[in-house]
Amino acid sequence: MVHTNEVVVKGYELKVPFKTLQGRSVNGYVSVRPYAKEIIKNISRYFDVIIFTAGSQCYADIIIDHLDPDKCVTHRLYR
Q1: 20 to 30 A Cα–Cα from 78, which one of 16, 43, 50, 65?
Q2: Strands 14-19, 25-32: parallel, antiparallel or unpaired by DSSP?
Q3: Which residues contact residue 26 at a Cβ distance below 8 angstroms, ignoring those fewer than 6 apart?
Q4: DSSP E strands, 1-79
């Protein structure tokens, strides 16, 4: 649903600070797939929505909150 890059990409929606595995503090520029927010909202009417991410919680929560402002996601699973 999203892609994060350390370099500024055209059309990014969100800038998220995070630490790399090497301990450096960097900004991640997040691009969101078209209609991702709408899909989460629509499917939550019929299903429990669970997001699994390989990202760490400190940075993933910021992105999930951006994707899901209406709090439709029922569970969040992290690295």
Answers
A1: 43
A2: antiparallel
A3: 6, 17, 18, 19, 20
A4: 2-5, 14-19, 25-32, 49-52, 73-77
Res. 43 pLDDT band, cuts 50 70 90? very high
* pLDDT higher than 90, residue 23: no
Tokens 């630490």 belong to 19
Pick the CATH number of 2-77 from 3.30.450.40, 3.40.50.300, 1.20.1070.10, 3.40.50.1000: 3.40.50.1000
Sequence letter at residue 9: V
